[in-house]
C-alpha cells in the first residue's frame, strides 16, 4: 500500500516536473506610460491602441513594415468608386465564443461614430454601412476616398452581443460617472485575451487558443507593468526581471548594449519633430517687434531654418538617434521623399536674410516647448535657442510639462504661441493627414488645420489637399502630394527638424519585431 | 475634555476646507485635463463640449462647492484617465502605501533607537562615528537617489532583490497584502529602507541627543551611586525618559512617511497612492489629485488630533489649568 502511494507520488511529481519543463512562456515587459482603460474607442493614442491590438482586431492590420494586410476582412474591392465591399473572414470567434459576423461590423461602425468616441475620424459620419450577407459588408461613401481603410488596423471590431449584454453600448467617455464594462474588460478576436487589468499597476494577457491565424509567437502569458521612472525601467531590464522595456532613454542605449544578455533595438520613428511660427497674427504675442509680425516675411522664416545645424543636434542632443528631415512627413510614408532636400545650414546666409528683412540686429521672440513629450524635447529647444542666438535672435524659452504646454498652444488655449516645437505622426500613415492638419488654413477657433498652430495659410495647398483626398490613382496622387509639399517647403511653412528615433531594450531571451509606429505586438514574439 | 475634543474637531474641519480650497486654486495652474483625455484628432468643438460636460467651464468657486458637496458624501467622482470611481481606486492603492509606510516606520524605530542609545553611551567609539557618518548620508541624500543606488547595487549587480513592484499579493477581503508571500517580502525590502532611512537617522540622532542630556542628570548619578547595574540604569532609567519626545516625533513622522511615499513609490513603481497621485499630476487628473490631497490632509489632522488628546490625557497640568477656567 505504502509502495503504491509512493509510486503515485513519484508519478505526480514527474507529471508536475514535465508540465513545468514544457512550461508556460511568460513575457514580462514595461512601458513608461499606463494603459488606462480598455474601451477601444475611448482614446486615440498609439500606446493604448497598440496594447488593445493584442486582444482586438480590425478588418485590416499592418505587418512588420506597416504594410496593410487582411485581418478580419479576407479581401476587399472597390465595386463602384463610392462603394467598397469587404469580404469578412469566416469561422472567426470572439474570446467569449461568439461568432464574428457582418452585424458586429455594423455595430462597431455605429459605436465608433457615437457620442463620446475619440476615434470618429476612422470612418466619416456620412459613410453608410450596409450588410450584404452574413460575411459581406458594403461601405457607401459620399465621394471617392482612396485611403478609407488606412486607419482601420486600429478600428477594432467589438462583439455586438457582448457589448449589449454588458450594457456597454455607450462609449466610455471621460465625463461618465459610472464605470463602463468595456473600460475594464476586453472581448476581441485577437491572439491574446486580457485576463486581468489593474489600471496603472499590471495587465495580464493569456494566449487565445481559438485565434483564426497561425500563431508566430510561442507565448502563453504576457505581463505588462507600467514603470514611469527611466532608471528603474532600465534597471529592471538589466537585472533580468523584465524581457523587454521601452522606451530606452538615448543616454542609456549604450548601457543596455554593453550589458550581457540585453540589447537595444533602435530605428527611426514615424514622428516628425518640427518648429512652427505664428504667421497669422499681425503682431506677435511674445516678441520685441511691435506693430508687425516678422514671421509673415518668408526671409525671416528661412533665416531661422538656415541658422539651425541639425547634424549637431543629431550628434550632441540625440546621440545619433535621429534623422534630420526635409519633409513634414516621415520619408518612410511617402515614396518620393528622396526628391526633397533640407535647406543647408548656413548662419551667414541667415544673418543676411535677417538684415534684408529689416532685422540686422535680430529681435527677441518667446518660444514654447514641452519638456516631457518627445525625446529630449527641452534639450532640442535649448540648442535651437543657442543657434538662433548666433544670428542675433534672442529666444526666451518657455519649456513646460505637456499638460501645461498643450493647454497654452492648442486651440483651447487660443493658440497662445509665437514660436513652438511640436511633433506629428499622421495616424493614417498618409500625407493628406499632414497637409490637412498641419499645413491647412484655419480660423481663430481652430476650424481647418487644427494643429497648424502658427496659422500658415496657402490656398493653393488647400486646393491640392482636397484633390489628393479624392484621387484614386496612386501615381497621380503622389504627384499632387509632391506638388503640395514643394509649395509648403517653398513657403517655409514650418521648419522640419528630424524624425526622432525609437529605442527598445530587449533581453537576448526574446525576439521581437520593432515597428516604426512604436507599437509592440505580441503576436510575433518568440521567447527561448 | 468633551468641549476640548469638539473644539479640535471643528478646527480639523476648517483645516480640511482650507486644504481643499488651496488645492482647488492650484488646479487652475496644472494644465488642461481635456488635452490629456482625448487623442490629437478630436476637434475643437468636441473638446469644448467635453470641457462643458466635466464642469470645467464653471467658476472655480462653483467647482469647489460642487466638490465639497460630493466629498461630504464620500463621492470623489470618476478619474479622468482611468474612467473608474476615484474612491475605489484609492481604496485599492491604500493597502500598498500603508504597508510600506508602517514597515518603514517600524524599521526606523527598531534600528534607530538602539543605534541612538549606542552612540549616546559610547560617544567616542569607532562604531559610533561610523553610525553618525551613515546617518549623515541618510539625512542629506535625496530619497530618489538612495532608491536608485539601492536598485543599482541589490537588483542590477547582486540580483538579490527586485527593482520594482510589489511581488505577489494575497487578497484578504478588500485588503491586498504582500506580507504573506516571499516575493512580496523581498519586494518590500528596498522601498522600505529607502523610505525609512531619513526617519531612522532622525530618530537615531534624537535618541542620542536625549541620552546625552539624560545621562548627565542627577537621578542617573544617584542611580549609579545606588550601585545599580549599567543595563538597568541605561535602559530603565535613561532610555525611558528619552522616549517622550521620540514618541511624539515618531507619531508625527508617520504622517510624513505616508505623504512622502510619493517619491519612493515612483522610484520603485510601488503601486500605492503616491504613484497614483504622481501619474494624476502628469495627466491633470483633477478628481484623483483632489481626493488624494484630502486624504493626506485628513491623515495629518487625525494624527494631530490623537496626539493632542494624548497630551491632554498624559499631562495632568493641562487638565488642571483648564479646570481653573
UniProtKB/TrEMBL annotation, chain A:
It is found in: Periplasm. InterPro entries: EF_Hand_1_Ca_BS (IPR018247), Peptide/Ni-bd (IPR030678), SBP_5 (IPR039424), SBP_5_dom (IPR000914). GO terms for cellular component: ATP-binding cassette (ABC) transporter complex; outer membrane-bounded periplasmic space. SUPFAM superfamilies: Periplasmic binding protein-like II. The keyword Signal applies. Residues 1-24 form the signal peptide. Residues 67-443 form the Solute-binding protein family domain. GO terms for biological process: peptide transport. The keyword Transport applies. Keywords: Signal, Transport. GO terms for molecular function: peptide transmembrane transporter activity. Belongs to the bacterial solute-binding protein 5 family. This is ABC transporter substrate-binding protein.
From TrEMBL, chain B:
Residues 94-311 form the ABC transmembrane type-1 domain. InterPro entries: BPD_transp_1_N (IPR045621), MetI-like (IPR000515), MetI-like_sf (IPR035906). Belongs to the binding-protein-dependent transport system permease family. It is found in: Cell membrane. PANTHER family: ABC TRANSPORTER PERMEASE PROTEIN (PTHR43163:SF2), DIPEPTIDE TRANSPORT SYSTEM PERMEASE PROTEIN DPPB-RELATED (PTHR43163). PROSITE patterns: ABC_TM1. GO terms for cellular component: plasma membrane. The keyword Transmembrane helix applies. It is a multi-pass membrane protein. It holds the Pfam family BPD_transp_1. Keywords: Cell membrane, Membrane, Transmembrane, Transmembrane helix, Transport. SUPFAM superfamilies: MetI-like. The chain crosses the membrane at residues 12-30, 100-118, 130-154, 174-198, 243-268, 288-314. GO terms for biological process: transmembrane transport. It comes from Stappia albiluteola. The keyword Transmembrane helix applies. This is ABC transporter permease.
Amino acid at each position: 500500500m505504502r509502495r503504491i502511494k509512493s509510486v503515485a507520488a513519484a508519478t505526480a511529481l514527474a507529471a508536475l516536473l514535465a508540465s513545468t519543463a514544457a512550461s508556460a512562456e511568460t513575457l514580462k515587459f514595461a512601458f513608461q506610460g499606463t494603459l488606462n482603460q480598455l474601451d477601444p474607442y475611448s482614446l486615440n493614442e498609439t500606446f493604448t491602441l497598440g496594447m488593445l491590438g493584442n486582444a482586438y482586431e480590425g478588418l485590416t492590420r499592418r505587418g512588420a513594415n506597416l504594410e496593410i494586410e487582411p485581418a478580419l476582412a479576407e479581401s476587399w474591392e472597390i465595386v463602384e468608386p463610392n462603394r467598397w465591399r469587404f469580404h469578412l473572414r469566416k469561422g472567426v470567434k470572439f474570446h467569449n465564443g461568439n461568432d464574428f459576423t457582418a452585424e458586429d461590423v455594423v455595430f462597431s461602425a455605429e459605436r465608433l461614430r457615437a457620442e463620446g468616441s475619440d476615434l470618429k475620424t476612422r470612418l466619416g459620419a456620412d459613410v453608410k454601412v450596409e450588410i450584404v450577407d452574413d460575411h459581406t459588408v458594403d461601405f457607401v461613401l459620399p465621394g471617392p476616398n482612396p485611403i478609407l481603410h488606412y486607419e482601420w488596423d486600429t478600428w477594432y471590431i467589438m462583439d455586438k452581443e457582448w457589448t449589449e449584454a454588458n450594457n456597454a453600448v455607450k462609449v466610455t467617455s471621460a465625463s461618465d460617472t459610472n464605470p463602463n464594462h468595456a473600460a475594464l474588460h476586453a472581448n476581441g478576436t485577437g491572439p491574446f485575451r486580457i485576463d486581468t487589468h489593474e489600471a496603472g499597476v499590471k495587465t495580464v494577457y493569456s494566449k487565445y487558443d481559438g485565434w483564426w491565424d497561425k500563431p508566430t509567437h510561442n507565448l502563453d502569458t504576457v505581463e505588462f507593468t507600467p514603470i514611469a521612472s527611466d532608471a528603474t525601467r532600465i534597471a529592471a531590464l538589466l537585472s533580468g526581471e523584465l524581457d523587454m522595456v521601452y522606451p530606452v532613454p538615448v543616454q542609456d542605449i549604450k548601457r543596455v548594449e554593453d550589458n550581457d544578455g540585453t540589447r537595444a533595438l533602435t530605428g527611426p520613428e514615424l514622428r516628425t519633430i518640427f518648429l512652427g511660427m505664428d504667421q497669422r497674427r499681425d503682431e506677435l504675442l511674445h516678441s520685441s517687434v511691435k506693430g508687425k509680425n516678422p514671421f509673415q516675411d518668408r526671409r525671416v522664416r528661412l533665416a531661422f531654418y538656415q541658422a539651425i545645424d541639425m547634424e549637431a543636434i543629431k550628434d550632441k542632443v540625440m546621440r545619433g538617434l535621429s534623422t534630420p528631415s526635409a519633409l513634414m512627413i516621415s520619408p518612410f510614408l511617402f515614396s518620393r521623399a528622396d526628391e526633397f532636400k533640407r535647406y543647408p545650414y548656413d548662419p551667414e546666409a541667415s544673418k543676411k536674410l535677417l538684415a534684408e528683412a529689416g532685422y540686422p540686429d535680430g529681435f527677441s521672440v518667446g518660444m514654447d516647448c514641452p519638456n516631457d513629450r518627445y525625446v529630449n524635447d527641452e534639450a532640442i529647444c535649448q540648442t535651437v535657442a543657442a543657434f538662433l542666438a548666433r544670428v542675433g535672435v534672442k529666444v526666451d524659452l518657455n519649456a513646460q510639462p505637456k499638460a501645461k504646454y498643450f493647454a497654452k498652444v492648442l486651440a483651447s488655449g487660443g493658440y497662445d504661441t509665437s514660436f513652438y516645437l511640436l511633433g506629428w505622426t499622421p495616424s493614417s500613415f498618409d500625407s493628406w493627414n499632414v497637409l490637412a492638419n498641419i499645413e491647412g488654413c484655419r480660423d481663430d477657433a481652430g476650424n481647418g488645420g487644427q494643429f497648424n498652430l502658427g496659422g500658415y495659410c496657402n490656398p493653393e495647398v488647400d486646393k491640392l489637399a482636397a484633390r489628393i483626398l479624392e484621387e484614386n490613382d496612386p501615381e497621380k496622387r503622389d504627384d499632387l502630394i509632391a506638388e503640395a509639399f514643394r509649395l509648403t517647403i517653398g513657403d517655409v511653412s514650418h521648419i522640419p527638424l528630424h524624425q526622432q528615433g525609437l529605442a527598445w531594450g530587449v533581453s537576448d531571451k526574446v525576439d521581437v519585431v520593432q515597428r516604426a509606429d512604436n507599437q509592440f505586438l505580441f503576436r510575433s514574439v518568440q521567447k527561448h | 475634555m468633551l468641549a476640548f475634543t469638539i473644539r479640535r474637531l471643528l478646527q480639523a474641519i476648517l483645516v480640511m476646507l482650507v486644504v481643499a480650497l488651496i488645492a482647488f486654486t492650484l488646479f487652475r495652474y496644472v494644465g488642461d485635463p481635456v488635452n490629456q483625455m482625448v487623442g490629437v484628432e478630436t476637434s475643437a468643438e468636441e473638446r469644448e463640449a467635453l470641457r462643458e460636460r466635466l464642469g470645467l467651464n464653471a467658476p472655480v468657486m462653483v467647482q469647489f462647492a460642487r466638490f465639497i458637496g460630493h466629498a461630504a458624501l464620500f463621492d470623489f467622482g470618476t478619474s479622468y484617465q482611468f474612467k473608474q470611481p476615484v474612491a475605489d481606486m484609492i481604496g485599492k492603492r491604500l493597502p500598498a502605501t500603508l504597508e510600506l509606510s508602517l514597515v518603514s516606520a517600524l524599521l526606523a524605530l527598531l534600528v534607530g533607537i538602539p543605534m541612538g542609545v549606542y552612540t549616546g553611551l559610547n560617544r567616542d567609539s569607532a562604531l559610533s562615528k561610523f553610525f553618525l557618518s551613515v546617518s549623515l548620508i541618510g539625512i542629506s541624500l535625496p530619497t530618489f537617489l538612495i532608491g536608485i543606488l539601492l536598485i543599482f547595487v541589490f537588483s542590477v549587480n547582486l540580483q538579490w532583490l527586485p527593482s520594482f513592484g510589489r511581488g505577489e499579493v494575497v487578497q484578504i477581503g478588500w485588503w491586498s497584502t504582500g506580507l504573506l508571500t516571499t516575493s512580496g517580502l523581498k519586494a518590500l525590502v528596498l522601498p522600505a529602507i529607502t523610505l525609512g532611512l531619513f526617519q531612522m537617522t532622525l530618530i537615531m540622532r534624537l535618541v542620542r541627543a536625549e541620552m546625552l542630556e539624560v545621562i548627565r542628570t542627577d537621578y542617573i548619578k544617584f542611580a549609579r551611586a545606588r550601585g545599580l547595574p549599567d543595563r538597568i540604569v541605561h535602559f530603565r532609567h535613561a532610555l525611558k525618559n528619552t522616549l517622550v519626545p521620540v514618541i511624539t516625533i515618531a507619531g508625527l513622522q508617520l504622517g510624513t512617511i505616508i505623504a512622502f511615499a510619493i517619491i519612493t513609490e515612483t522610484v520603485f513603481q510601488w503601486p500605492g497612492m503616491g504613484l497614483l497621485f504622481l501619474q494624476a499630476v502628469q495627466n491633470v487628473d483633477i478628481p484623483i489629485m483632489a481626493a488624494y490631497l484630502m486624504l493626506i490632509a485628513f491623515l495629518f489632522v487625525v494624527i494631530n488630533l490623537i496626539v493632542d488628546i494624548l497630551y491632554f490625557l498624559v499631562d495632568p497640568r493641562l487638565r488642571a489649568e483648564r479646570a481653573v477656567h
